[in-house]
Amino acid sequence: MKTVPLGPTGRQVPNVVLGLMRIAQMDDDAVRRLVRTARDAGVDFIDHADVYGDELHGCERRFAEAMQLTPSQRAELTIQSKAGIVPDGPYFDYSYDHLVESVEGSLRALDTDYLDVLLLHRPDALVEPDEVARAFDHLESTGKVRAFGVSNHTPGQIELLRRSVRQPLVANQLQLSITHAPMVAQGVAANMAGLDQSTARDGGILDYCRLHDITVQAWSPFQAGFFTGVFLGHEGYPELNAVIDRLAATYDVPAIAIATAWITRHPAGMQVVLGTTTPERVAGAAQGSDVPLTRAEWYELFRAAGYTVP
Ligand SMILES: NC(=O)c1ccc[n+]([C@@H]2O[C@H](COP(=O)([O-])OP(=O)(O)OC[C@H]3O[C@@H](n4cnc5c(N)ncnc54)[C@H](OP(=O)(O)O)[C@@H]3O)[C@@H](O)[C@H]2O)c1
């Protein structure tokens, strides 16, 4: 498993992450098999959020109850969770009280003393950066959170936080797959009149993260769009799947490894956050960790997904 630095800390972490958003209905054995398969493949980085599951902290609790981790097993894992979404509404809340309460709920549900990483889940329009800073200072000084980051944030939103927050922001988790790659595709076609791909919607977040050593974590890496189903093997993407299948044969890996490699091949040093609950798919995706796609192959996949290379 290839590793990448986690933000400016330089701490090495695997470039494939096991996301556990979809485990709410899985029994203990199934959760254990999923996590064990990931561990065997070198994936020791787990992604959670307080809102994953049918009830608050549901997936975090399901994970802890199934795994029953000993302290040393816990220490072998990097456990990341997120706060800031209030599902009853919905709305977003980056207040001190909400962030601290959410983390304490996560720690109880996960049956652990600390989160390795806490991400602010989705930008709060009413964010007060000093209040976030106060929450981070409290969570850090009490040992409840070891590192901090964001998710779905623009450069301006990160800059605003950085004016108040003392801790480095190590990661920005963003939606990215071959078929949903505006953060990559916009820059390739900047200044092309009349082309939707040229429209800058995220303030240049990919370049910003690279310039500030913020690790990009790609969520929904196999979804065609926003939870619209996967593009792998889907009849709506014949050209893309033909290229994926040909490269899978070339590199002697499953198709899912090529879809993973399209992200891990990017020199930004991204992490791919898997959401599958199928152990075989986790093992297959992990094989994409260091598939050395050539430039020509990477761009061929990009074009086959429908993006323009002017
Ligand atoms: N920060 C954010 O705002 C945010 C938002 C969404 C998600 N996330 C994180 O990102 C993770 C991944 O998100 P995701 O689950 O949407 O991503 P994904 O890995 O692209 O999608 C996984 C889903 O696709 C299904 N699937 C069907 N065919 C598949 C195939 N051939 N290969 C792989 N999967 C297939 C899986 O089903 P099976 O389970 O049956 O395999 C599963 O339901 C989540 O677990 C969560 O940790 C973060």
UniProtKB/TrEMBL annotation:
Annotated transmembrane regions: none
InterPro entries per the UniProt record, alphabetical: AKR_Detox_Biosynth (IPR050523), NAD(P)_OxRdtase_dom_sf (IPR036812), NADP_OxRdtase_dom (IPR023210)
Annotated ranges, domain NADP-dependent oxidoreductase: 16-300
Top-level taxon of the source organism: Bacteria
A Pfam family annotated for this UniProt entry: Aldo_ket_red
Protein name: Oxidoreductase
Organism for this UniProt entry: Isoptericola halotolerans
Lineage of the organism: Bacteria, Bacillati, Actinomycetota, Actinomycetes, Micrococcales
